[in-house]
Specification:
- The complex is a heterodimer of chains A (270) and B (638).
- Chain A has 270 residues and is of the alpha+beta class.
- Helices cover 31% and strands 13% of the residues of chain A.
- Chain A has helices at residues 58-71, 143-150, 172-182, 189-193, 200-211, 220-233, 244-248, 256-269; strands spanning 25-34, 43-53, 94-95, 98-99, 121-125, 134-136, 139-140.
- In chain A, the strands form two sheets. Chain A has a five-stranded mixed sheet.
- In chain A, helix 2 packs antiparallel against helix 6 (220-233) and helix 3 (172-182) packs antiparallel against helix 5 (200-211).
- Among the domains of chain B are: 268-402, Flavocytochrome C3, Chain A, domain 1 (Alpha-Beta Complex); 474-594, Methane Monooxygenase Hydroxylase, Chain G, domain 1 (Up-down Bundle), CATH 1.20.58.
- Chain B is α+β, with helices and mostly antiparallel strands.
- In chain B, the strands form five sheets. In chain B, strands 5-2-1-9-17 form a five-stranded parallel sheet. In chain B, strands 11-15-14-12-13 form a five-stranded antiparallel sheet.
- In chain B, strand 18 (605-610) and strand 19 form a beta hairpin.
- Classes of the chains: A alpha+beta (270), B alpha+beta (638).
- Chains A and B meet through helix 1, helix 2 and helix 3 of A and helix 3, helix 5, helix 6, helix 9 and helix 11 of B.
């Protein structure tokens, strides 16, 4: 490597060289659900936002809105987010009526503004389900998902004493199917999209993941029974085959997992 | 001052230290464990595995995370894999080779005994995760598959498509969920630790803020474990999650925990380039892509032709050319500096701040389906962010801040300089020296949580007479008051600039002066500007909302305030370390070929900083690194 002399190369830091963003600029009207806290009555409010780059992610657009609201002395919009790369499952909102917005197999943080057009009005609402009470604005409480996992979404082993990782061969196909289901990020879009606010896609993904692996066999029946009981007690609805969950799932979890879960459940009953 | 830092590395041959230490450690008998309470802050790989393991052993555990679920910690985003010295490939791997690669990869700035222990327990981690149901990639015969990562000439990386971190974290999370169900662990989500409570010189609890209600609360324990990750977000733009912060470790530093090697930062070579000023984060493209992707730029400066139109003879595969033995799989620090160099020469592609990562040759060799099977989700992610199809046209990539090797100083037991305060995972400094090898962060997090802390915590609790303490102790009241005063102060300034704007400004200073290449003048400028920015922050920050509500602006403001103190220590450490090593590249110290030039006579040590009452005035202590097994040489990957 030739001797390095310049300091960190890129102009202004990997922040764009010219001081503003690439991409086309959009002017937008936003209709956003505002709700002060869990008990307050919410309402839609309208905001105008100018100069939104098509290269920005949806959440960066919300960042921009919030900076504008703060400057105007208004309360910024609360929304959950963390990794911003589509894997933590923290973000999510109904955008124009669709969970995580218009793009298929995409979380809200990975939705980019190029999916919207100049002059468009965008409505933004929280997940709506009895089991997901609103905390503030777009942020909801998904503790109910935790309870479902705690009811049985694991292999009951402690730390230490595990046999060699290659001691039980697992057919590649089984490992792949387990992985397909295990990709669920627990965002809750499936519940939000379902007319019954059912958590069956979420619950079945975990049951299916473990049911495909030899390590999950020992407890498979009790696991299904316990997790489904928790799901029902927490106030989630039932599946009536609308398929909205699969359509909005950012990780493309399939409804065939629900069929598998039902078989596991019947197995637990007999 | 070196005597202050006792690493407590056991005596004896390298390969026997850990066994010996485990045997000599004090134990707490199973029936007595429930009498001890342990706080675990953070629920990534280190925190979740520690909380689950300690809960399973019978300790009374309280775990905390700021996210709405422990499953969302940023370990979830790790893509490529986890190393383990299984030697399933029969290609010459061994515990010693993993140890050696890690020490060399870290440019001889890590502690030998810790790294060897890490290599020893690496194989247990794979077994543990398989038993939990982690769906690692398998071969057609049903056995575990491997891939290669940078800085190694063996294939030892286990993976679950491009979501290895997710699957490992979900494994640890499932174990944690089981302990929550069994009431061995009390889980506090949406709760942020804002200070450590030290009583009689020992860590005896924490002060937290409930992020939904704003309630500030006291939690008492016999030991506190910080598993709170790294500080990459001091650069504002990084591959870290938005919430990643230095607050927990910084607050502990201010209470007496030494901060070690703050200047050691990993700049990851393969990230999606920056698009604009409103960008909030950078996205990594896994190092595993360098198994099949070839890195290149045009040979000629300013060549604006499309990649497809540039003939083979006019391309410069610079890593393959300069480092034939490791090729595209050189360690991250070297790959990053070379990418920067070709861009500085005017040979960058796209907007000039990018190089190609090209899969055409691999797709031709093994077919598009095989490439999709290996990296499908990464290709999809790239396409979503850039609106380009990487199966057809090469990816454009550029280095970005990814991981921090520095952290709170810990001894062999993972205990900080505050007795009773343990630090695990990325939050500590111990295993990666000045540069971390790919697929080793997951290994370290889980090693610390599953297989190290269960022994070393027992040794502390079993060997220490702890006075009874409750939440009414005056130290709890005093610390809680300080937390409340700080929160109220942030809200009362009512200035003109948002916390986000301050964060961006700090990030620019850090990247320009403390980024991939550093020099004396730049670091001195940072040391002048950071305190000025901090001063401005405390006079002009505008934090909207109230203390007693869900207030994300307040959360960010508190974190930025700590970054504004920490950034100064970072720059100070980088200035004092007059050598180049791993990710710390001082322009004044390079070989004729432009590689990092270490100064082993003066800097083969850990620098650990002690808080002495005001920022910038920390005392620098030194832990001399002793190499009994590895010979220090100029790192070569040629």
């Amino acid at each position: 490597m030739a001797t390095m002399t310049t300091t960190n190369g890129h102009a202004a830091n990997g922040h764009a060289a010219n001081g503003h963003s690439k991409g086309k600029m959009l002017n937008l009207t936003l209709q956003v659900w505002r709700q002060k806290n869990a008990t307050a009555k919410g309402r839609m409010e309208e905001y105008k936002l100018k100069g939104v780059s098509t290269e920005m992610s949806f959440l960066e657009m919300l960042d921009m809105l919030n900076e504008q609201l703060i400057k105007e002395g208004k309360d910024p919009v609360a929304f959950d987010h963390d990794c911003r790369e589509g894997i933590c499952g923290m973000c999510g909102a109904m955008v124009n009526g669709y969970a995580h917005g218009p793009d298929e197999a995409t979380t809200l943080c990975q939705t980019h503004m190029r999916s919207f057009s100049d002059g468009e009005t965008i409505t933004i609402e929280p997940w709506r389900a009895k089991a997901f009470p609103v905390i503030k604005d777009l942020a909801v409480d998904r503790t109910s998902f935790e309870r479902i996992i705690q009811a049985g979404g694991y292999v009951s082993i402690g730390t230490g004493g595990a046999p060699d990782g290659n001691s039980i061969p697992i057919p590649k196909e089984a490992a792949d199917k387990a992985m397909d289901a295990a990709q669920c990020i627990g965002c809750g879009a499936c519940v939000a999209a379902c007319p019954n606010a059912s958590a069956m896609l979420f619950t079945s993904a975990k049951i299916s993941h473990l049911a495909h692996l030899p390590q999950g066999q020992v407890e498979r029946r009790e696991r299904a029974a316990n997790m489904i009981r928790a799901m029902d007690e927490l106030g989630f609805g039932n599946c009536t085959n609308h398929g909205e969950c699969e359509a909005v799932c950012p990780k493309e979890i399939k409804m065939e997992n629900i069929a598998l879960m039902n078989r596991e459940y019947f197995g637990a009953l007999v | 001052m070196a005597t202050v830092l006792d690493s407590k590395v056991p005596s004896g041959p390298l390969g026997e230290k850990w066994e010996k230490h485990k045997f000599e450690s004090k134990l707490v008998n199973p029936a007595n464990r429930r009498k001890f309470s342990v706080i675990v802050v953070g629920t990534g790989l280190a925190g979740a595995s520690a909380a689950a393991s300690l809960g399973d052993m019978g300790y009374k555990v309280k775990a905390f995370c700021f996210q709405d679920s422990p499953r969302r910690a940023h370990s979830i985003a790790a893509q490529g894999g986890i190393n383990a010295a299984k030697n399933y490939r029969n290609d010459g791997d061994s515990t010693y080779r993993l140890f050696y690669d890690t020490i060399k990869g870290g440019d001889y700035r890590a502690r030998e005994a810790n790294v060897h222990r890490l290599a020893e327990v690496s194989t247990n981690i794979i077994d543990q995760c398989v038993a939990q149901g982690v769906p690692f990639a398998r071969e057609y015969g049903g056995l575990l598959d491997n891939r290669s990562f940078g800085g190694a000439q063996v294939s030892r990386t286990f993976y679950a498509r491009g979501q290895t971190g997710q699957q490992l974290l979900l494994g640890a999370y499932s174990a944690l969920s089981r302990q929550i169900h069994l009431k061995n662990v009390e889980m506090h989500t949406r709760t942020e630790m804002l200070d450590v409570v030290v009583i009689g010189g020992r860590a005896r609890g924490i002060i937290t803020r409930n992020l939904v209600t704003g309630a500030v609360e006291r939690h008492v324990a016999d030991a506190v474990l910080l598993c709170t990750g790294g500080y990459g977000n001091v650069f504002f733009l990084s591959t870290n999650a938005q919430g990643c912060n230095v607050t927990a470790t910084w607050r502990a530093h201010r209470r007496g925990a030494f901060f070690a090697n703050p200047c050691y930062t990993q700049i990851h070579p393969t990230c999606i380039p920056v698009h604009g000023e409103d960008q909030s984060k950078l996205t990594l493209m896994s190092e595993s892509l360098r198994n099949d992707g070839r890195v290149w730029v045009p040979k000629a400066k300013g060549d604006k032709r499309r990649a497809e139109d540039i003939p083979e003879a006019e391309r410069d595969y610079f890593l393959e050319r300069k480092y034939p033995a490791f090729g595209n799989l050189v360690p991250r620090d070297i790959a990053s500096r070379n990418a920067k160099e070709v861009c500085d020469e005017g040979r960058g592609v796209g907007d000039g701040q990018a190089v190609y990562l090209d899969f055409a040759a691999s797709i031709q060799r093994v077919g598009e389906d095989v490439i999709r099977d290996r990296y499908g989700n990464l290709f999809d992610m790239y396409a979503k962010i850039t609106a380009e199809n990487p199966y057809k046209t090469p990816m454009q990539i550029y280095p970005a801040v990814h991981y921090t090797m520095g952290g709170l100083w810990v001894d062999y037991n993972l205990q900080s300089t505050i007795p009773g305060l343990f630090v695990l995972g990325e939050a500590n400094f111990s295993d990666h020296g000045a540069n971390r090898l790919g697929a080793s962060a997951l290994m370290q997090g889980l090693a610390d949580g599953y297989f190290v802390i269960p022994y070393t915590l027992g040794n502390y609790l079993g060997g220490t007479k702890l006075d009874p303490v409750d939440a009414n102790a005056p130290e709890f009241g005093a610390t809680e008051n300080e937390v409340n005063e700080r929160v109220n102060k942030l809200l009362s300034i009512k200035g003109n600039k948002t916390p986000l704007a301050f964060h961006k400004e700090l990030g620019k200073i850090m990247w320009n002066e403390c980024g991939m290449a550093r020099n004396k003048a730049g670091l001195e400028s940072a040391l002048k500007r950071i305190p000025e920015l901090r001063e401005e922050f405390w006079n002009n920050v505008k934090v909207s909302g109230e203390a007693g509500e869900f207030n994300q602006q307040l959360e960010r403001a508190g974190r930025v305030a700590d970054f504004l103190e920490f950034g100064e220590l970072f720059a100070k450490d980088a200035l004092i370390r007059e050598e180049s090593c791993g990710g710390h590249f001082r322009e004044e110290h390079q070989t004729e070929e432009g590689e990092a030039k270490r100064d082993d006579d003066n800097f083969a040590h850990v620098a650990a900083y002690e808080w002495t009452g005001s920022n910038g005035a920390q005392t620098r202590h030194v832990e001399q690194l002793v190499f009994e097994n590895v010979k220090l040489t100029q790192r070569s990957y040629k």
